Automatic annotation (TrEMBL), chains A, B:
Keywords: Ligase. It comes from Acidithiobacillus montserratensis. The keyword Ligase applies. Its EC number is 6.3.2.2. It comes from the Bacteria. It is an enzyme of class 6 (ligase). This is Glutamate--cysteine ligase.
Length: 436, 436
């Protein structure tokens, strides 16, 4: 069973005036915000799905990661299933009107039953939307049924090619939906297919870069900040990147030190401006990749002068052994949200197409306010939002749960605008690649 | 406050096998049903909004009226507001991507505060979807603010023309949304406007005909019945029409008698086939018009041989004095739904675009199972559905509330397919009218 939050986590800080101010501007500007999003997604269509990790420090509300191969659909509040299905149906109406047969390709880690619950839930939502769905495995050579803790059964099937069409036994899909972030690169079986693939192969972590996403996010955040008249820093974290880093050989260390210090200096200036007394920090992570490997919290550039062997090894590799050579340095945003049990919590917001579905809190009892919480394990617990983040309530105070959730939905969609612009870049690259 | 049903009304009949069978087929065929609807609305787009009166006799589930100028949005379950707003947003994305300014034109009966609550709610939902909305009155010469029982204030404004553009003071709308069924005919101020009008003027009750709607419904019901393999009669009421009727002068009486008997005979045959022991009846009403005036229940054609003066007067006029000359004779469908207090209940389902929003029960303590319940007054009480009618639940029995609501949503959308085809007819008539 999905655990649903009865109460939104507490903001354990006194410094909430700036956040209250953001929320006030978001509520007052709701109509203009919705119009702005509509025009954005008209220009650059949203991806099929996305999920965004947010951090809320009370004085700043900002995204830290945008996932285009969202897992965790099983963690959403089942009470709003109608909303999820209608979001899928609207996406199909708009972009795939004739679609009937869809092949879903999940990650390969079939031993993770939590992940398989996500796949089963996603398949169910797609089927309820009126699609004929099969789940194809990149690994299996025989059909395999997995019994899940929820009581659901998930059937994974082998896939094969007929010429340039991907197939399962007796099933010729019209669309391939990836729930696999391609950290291991693009498998040959997916290359040069006749069928469209969503998200596109370029969204995989071999080619996608966080720095490109956050450059688009910065531009979008500045545009929206103008619409609602706020300081864009309140929703946009500073960042820098370094290329050609080799942690094991300490190559590129000077770039790291200089850029960590640069981000800290910029952050310090904003903290001083707002009278924030917390200590600025940065998060250093692979510019490509995900899953909380190779992520480090730092309070000064000097920390990178003398990393010990263990730290260097940890930073040098990301998921599926993808070596880290491009490094993304992002202003750290404290999470001052905590559950009644004082565990640190971080909201994750889900979207299908341009519609927010709600989300859940990633609750971590073993980590601090300045650490990455996307680290599954014994201390990790998802708590579904009690509201779908779509509507503010003008009659409630700006920090009422419904309004805080709306703020999360707005910032999440802002990252979606950035992702939509990334997708437009990829289409253009592909078009110019095909032309050259 | 909108009263929300905790329990679905009871089906007070033993004869529910056929309904259970319909519901089983709907649940089993959900994916195919959703695909079928998607392809239908791709061919003929759904109107902006619609609401449908359904009747559920346990052995038959059928629509009896489809309203293209839906009132009663204030009676929907406020818990699903996010769903309503997302439905409006999706409609805008698909059909009016650049829309910012909308003028809503309500009915003229400003003394009906229940109706004004509907207008206020509709305006609120449109605003939350990101539109700049004004409410224009066809009657008022000065801006007038109405204080509503809910505590909301509704501002109505005078409207005027600048050439062929409809305006309110300082407001140049891009779309006119009608919540006025034009029973009194099309006012000159709305004719030949530059701006699009939704629903189109042809949807007004001066020109729209129930017989045309139900002819399209019949075709659509037969198509869907094939998809899910059921007898189409289970969801489709027989009907006939008579033209050139003058109730006061008893002109056209023979047509009435013959067609009432014909519908009863057809119904009798189906009742016999299913072993239904209830007495067949018909509902006789104006082919144009609405609002429960000029509506009669009859058990034989002979009843029309000797209508008394009062009955004739009642039948001769519909809303706003629209004279009845075309008469629609429809197979009566018993409503065997009743509340815990044994009041007769009839479901009304709401849609925006092709999305079902849910609905409410029209509960009437002063009327019988074979009577029209759309008669506002002291005995009338709306009870919001507890579910949005979008998703069935395969793990629940076919007659579980969630599944009965899903069945209502399917039949409601089937009338929407019919309405979409009516709209296509109107566009074609307009195009050929413009060409000639």
């Amino acid at each position: 069973m999905t655990e649903v939050l009865q109460n939104i986590p507490l903001l354990a800080t006194e410094r909430t005036e700036a956040l209250l101010d953001i929320e006030r501007h978001l509520i007052a500007g709701q109509s203009a915000i919705e119009r702005w999003f509509r025009s954005q997604f008209q220009m650059t269509p949203a991806p099929f799905y996305a999920s965004v990790d947010l951090r809320n420090s009370g004085f700043k509300l900002a995204p830290v990661d945008t996932n285009l191969f969202s897992a965790g659909f099983n963690n959403l509040n089942p009470e709003f299933s109608s909303l999820y299905v209608s979001a899928i149906q609207h996406y199909l109406n708009q972009y795939y009107p004739g679609l009937e047969r869809l092949l879903l390709i999940p990650e390969n880690h079939t031993r993770n039953l939590f992940y398989l619950e996500n796949v089963a839930r996603l398949r169910e939502l797609l089927e309820m939307s009126g699609l004929d769905v099969r789940v194809g495995s990149l690994l299996l050579e025989e059909r395999t049924a997995y019994d899940l803790p929820s009581g659901n059964v998930l059937l994974l099937e082998p896939i094969f090619r007929e010429g340039n069409r991907l197939q399962a036994a007796g099933f010729d899909p019209q669309l391939i939906l990836l729930n696999n972030d391609l950290s291991g690169g693009v498998p040959e079986i997916l290359e040069n297919l006749e069928q469209p693939i969503s998200p596109p192969l370029a969204a995989g972590w071999r080619s996608r870069r966080k720095s490109q996403h956050f450059a688009h996010y910065r531009a979008a955040a500045h545009e929206l900040a103008e619409v609602i008249d706020i300081d864009p820093w309140l929703i946009d974290p500073f960042f820098r990147r370094c290329q050609g880093i080799d942690f094991m050989r300490a190559e590129g260390r000077d770039c790291l030190v200089a850029n960590v210090d640069a981000v800290l200096e910029l952050t310090r200036e904003r903290y001083a401006h707002y009278g924030i007394t917390q200590r600025p920090f940065v998060i250093v992570k692979a510019d490509a990749g995900t899953y909380g490997m190779g992520i480090m919290t730092a309070y000064s550039g000097a920390e990178f002068m003398d990393l010990n062997r263990k730290e260097r090894t940890r930073m040098a590799k990301s998921k599926e052994g993808l070596p880290v050579s491009d490094v993304f340095i992002q202003e750290g945003v404290y999470t001052f949200e905590q559950t009644a049990e004082e565990a640190v919590a971080e909201p994750v917001v889900y979207m299908v197409g341009q519609q927010v579905l709600g989300g859940f809190y990633r609750v971590h009892t073993g980590r601090g306010r300045d650490e990455n919480l996307n680290a599954p394990g014994a201390h990790f617990e998802p708590m579904a939002f009690g509201e779908p983040c779509i509507l503010p309530c003008r009659k409630s105070p700006p920090d009422a749960p419904v309004n805080r959730y709306y703020a999360y939905g707005v910032i999440a969609r802002l990252t979606l605008v950035a992702a939509a612009r990334e997708m437009a870049d990829w289409r253009q690259q592909q078009a110019s690649g095909a032309a050259s």
